[in-house]
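Ticket #4471: structure output looks truncated?

Reporter: J.K.
Steps to reproduce: submitted the chain below (261 residues) through the standard prediction queue, then opened the result file.
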Amino acid sequence: MKKSKIITLILFGIGYSSIGFSQMDAPTTPPEESPMPMKPEMTEIWEPQIEKITPGEKPGDAPSDAIILFNGKNLDQWVSQNDTEKSAPWAIKDGYFEVVPGTGGIQTKMKFGDAQIHIEWSAPDKVENSGQGRGNSGLFLQNRYELQILDSYNNRSYSNGQAASIYKDAPPLVNAMRSPDKWNVYDVIYTAPRFKDGKLDQKAKITVLHNGVVVQNNTTIQGLTLYIGLHNYPEAHEEDVIALQDHGTKVQFRNIWVRKL
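Returned output as attached by the reporter:
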């Protein structure tokens, strides 16, 4: 055999051996370990325990942790908006109170942010006027954002100004108004706006049930309620009062309570 062929075979053998060695003896990557099997208790939250409260006996009754804003007897939780050093000037009737037109709005002594609010109201028994002139008041959240109160029973007005609208902002999904001789109920879940470094970070949100019907579903409140112009958030603010509007008609109120959220 020629010398060149012998050298070639030797080199081939060395190469083959090297390949074989690398394939047989090179370290291999260990298989990934399987994750620990989940157990039911791994997704159970035990602490802190949930605070226990006592719900109302009947629908609309205040739960044990509610702040009672009207108990059917007095307006001790309210003051005049014209002069916050004075008592609320509206008339106490038999288990409810009534707007005294011309005396101005009233507001709570306490301030609130995120809140659940229950309020029952009725348009005046005597039907007078039409549109915005009929049974008009308003529930102002943080003294800025109005949930409209209006006798919208067989009474056409602009949609974002009728009962259960966010006034001049968002119409209700439906008109769930009862006749003027009956009581209406608003159940409100309100999320206050958030501000960061003096600037708006998150707009307010509101969900409203009118007589048990969802009429505002996590609706974004576009800003300060204005009669003229686009709504906006002109300044940062903290918790503030709840207010009821005197719009010149004898709207009636009863069973008002709030829970801070």
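Triage note (M.O.): checked the attachment and the full token line is present. The longest helix spans residues 3-25.
Status: closed, working as intended.
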